[in-house]
Amino acid sequence: QVSLTTSDNRLEVKAGRSNFKLPTLPRDDFPVIVEGDLPTSFELPARVLAELIDRTRFAISTEETRYYLNGIFLHVTDENEPLLKAAATDGHRLARFTLSRPEGAAGMPDVIVPRKAVGELRKLLEEALDGNVLIDLSASKIRFTMGGEGGVVLTSKLIDGTFPDYSRVIPTGNDKLLKVDPKLLFSGVDRVATIATEKTRAVKIGLDQDRVTLSVTSPDNGTAAEELAAEYRADALEIGFNANYLKDILGQIDADTVELHLADAGAPTLIRENEASPALYVLMPMRV
Questions:
Q1: How far apart are CA 57 and CA 63, in angstroms?
Q2: What is the pTM (predicted TM-score) of this model?
Q3: 3-class DSSP state of 177
Q4: Does 200 share its domain with 256?
Q5: Where are the beta strands (DSSP E) in the chain?
């Protein structure tokens, strides 16, 4: 049993034979977030929200000068069907997750949820995966309520900035299709990248008929190469990627096959499980 007592700006904590007396601060100094009106309100299953975060947050930028990229961008669209989309990018890779627009989300403002709030929310979701999450938001604040009344509530300010029009960098005409086992490609890239320089982590991918060749050349550490079986019927191509960025994306694919839609050595590559997958990734190439 633990007992807590306060007196004279101190908190006394007793548990068994242990006794702590801790200094406290004035309660009026605790910051209070004034939520104001949160006109948009909708629910998502906690597991869906957790997957949305898991599939996108690795691409959030950590560069503070580009503060508008320091979070997950949430917005709704009405192109062919009403959708809720989540996106994150650091300029080198893009992650996007799409789901049907929840009831109540129509007309919601575009918002950017800060990286720190995303991380705290994901931890809280781990304890509430079997329920729903109520999301209330305005253009400047967002509130997540887990566990209904008496549950946990996380309120956060939103990033005051404009997220770039990321749809312009999603390739639509890449005509070279590579299909490969994502776990096989991940482990192959991981092996050859062990000799890559720490600064670039560059790996070259050579594509030919039903064959992938992974290679790394380092002036200091030597060379490495590995061949993988794959499905590829287009013209031969060599392209370079940052090994860590590629592994981050491959680690999100739970299927037996991943599709890489390529154009040339200088164009972004589209990566996804298949056409029906809610998650989509874009990776910029590197010179190797």
A1: 14
A2: 0.90
A3: strand
A4: yes
A5: 2-7, 10-15, 18-23, 40-45, 71-77, 83-89, 93-100, 111-114, 132-137, 141-146, 152-157, 176-180, 202-208, 211-218, 222-229, 231-232, 237-242, 258-262, 269-272, 279-283
pLDDT tens-digit profile of 157-201? Answer: 999 999 999 999 999 999 999 999 999 999 999 999 999 887 778
- The domain that holds 75 is classified in CATH as 3.10.150.10
Q: What is the pLDDT of residue 56?
A: 98
Roughly what angle, to the nearest 10 degrees, separates helices 46-56 and 115-125?
140
Could you tell me if residue 119 is inside a domain? yes
Same domain flag for 175 and 230: yes
Res. 32: pLDDT tops 90: no
Among 142, 166, 190, identify where a domain stops. 166
Contacts of 93 (CB under 8 A, 6+ apart): 59, 245, 248, 249, 281, 282, 283, 284
The residue to which tokens 């209904």 are assigned:
148
Tokens 């991918």 sit on residue: 205
| End residue of a domain, out of 166, 189, 223 | 166
Instruction: Please check whether residue 34 lies inside any domain of the structure.
Output: no
For residue 272, the enclosing domain spans: 170-283
Per-residue pLDDT band at 229 (split at 50, 70, 90): very high
- pLDDT, position 242: 96
Are the C-beta atoms of residues 89 and 68 closer than 8 Å to each other? no
The reply to whether 271 and 174 lie within a common domain is yes
157: helix, strand or coil: strand
Q: What is the pLDDT of residues 49-97, one digit of tens each?
A: 999 999 999 999 999 999 999 999 999 999 889 999 999 999 999 999 9
